[in-house]
Amino acid sequence: MIKLALTGSIGMGKSTVAAMFAARGIPLFDADAAVRRLQGPGGALVEPIEEQFPGTTGPDGVDREALAQRVLGDPDQLARLEMLVHPAVHEERTRFILANADKPALLFDIPLLFETGGEAQFDRVIVVSAPAAVQAERVLARPGMTPAKFAAIRARQMPDSDKRKRADFVIDTGGSLAHSERQVEEILACLGLARGA
Question: Going by DSSP bridges, is the β-strand pair 57-58/61-62 parallel, antiparallel, or unpaired?
Answer without folding.
Answer: antiparallel
